[in-house]
Recover the amino acids of this structure.
C-alpha cells in the first residue's frame, strides 16, 4: 500500500519561512539546485513551540534523524542540502533541505459526472510509486509525498516527531484541508 507522508499540522508545530533566494519552481519540478547557497541554508522558524522532524511547506526540510532514516533505508532520489533551522530566540538546529528528484507527472482518476459536479474535494489525485522508488511525488505537487508501506514501517520504528501517514484515498486535493478533514 502507498501512504502520504505528511507533516503534523497541529497549530503549534514549527513552520519555516519562505526564502526569496531559493527557486520554488525548481523544487516543484524536482530538479537539482544549480546555484545552491554555499554552506548551510538558514531557515527562520515561526514562533510555534512544537518540534517536528518533517517540515513540508514551503520546502521539504527534515531533521538529521529523518534524513538518516531515509539514507539507512536506501532512498536515493532526494538531493540533500545542509540547512539550519533558527528559532525566533536564536536557537539553531541542524537540518536538511531535500528535493525529491524527477517526479512523474500527476495522473487523474477518471471521475463520474456525479463526482465532477461536487466540490474540488472530489478531484483526488491517484498516487502511485515509481517501480524503482520507495518515495515519490507527482510533479508540481511538493506536499504529496508518497511512500511505500515498507518505508512507512521503517520510519515508524524510529523515534521521530511530527510525521503523519495518510491513506491517499482520503486526500481531497487540498494539502491542508484534506489533512484536517481526515484526522
Amino acid at each position: 500500500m502507498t501512504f502520504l507522508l505528511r507533516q503534523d499540522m497541529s497549530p503549534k508545530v514549527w513552520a519555516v519561512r519562505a526564502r526569496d533566494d531559493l527557486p520554488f519552481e525548481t523544487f516543484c519540478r524536482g530538479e537539482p539546485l544549480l546555484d545552491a547557497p554555499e554552506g548551510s541554508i538558514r531557515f527562520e522558524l515561526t514562533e510555534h513551540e512544537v518540534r517536528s522532524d518533517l517540515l513540508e511547506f514551503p520546502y521539504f526540510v527534515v531533521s538529521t534523524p529523518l534524513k538518516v532514516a531515509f539514507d539507512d533505508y536506501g532512498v536515493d532520489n532526494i538531493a540533500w542540502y545542509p540547512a539550519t533551522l533558527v528559532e525566533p530566540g536564536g536557537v539553531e538546529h541542524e537540518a536538511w533541505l531535500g528535493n525529491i528528484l524527477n517526479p512523474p507527472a500527476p495522473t487523474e482518476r477518471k471521475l463520474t459526472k456525479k463526482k465532477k459536479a461536487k466540490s474540488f474535494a472530489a478531484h483526488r489525485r491517484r498516487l502511485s510509486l515509481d517501480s524503482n522508488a520507495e518515495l515519490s511525488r507527482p510533479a508540481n505537487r511538493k506536499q504529496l509525498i508518497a511512500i511505500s508501506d515498507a518505508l512507512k514501517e521503517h520510519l515508524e520504528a524510529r523515534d521521530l516527531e511530527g510525521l503523519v501517514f495518510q491513506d491517499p484515498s482520503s486526500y481531497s486535493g487540498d494539502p491542508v484541508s484534506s489533512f484536517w478533514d481526515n484526522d
Observations:
- The helical segments are 24-29, 64-73, 113-117, 149-156, 177-181.
- Residues 64-73 form the longest helix (10 residues).
- Confidence is low (pLDDT under 50) at residues 107-129, 178-183.
- The CA atoms of residues 59 and 177 lie 19 Å apart.
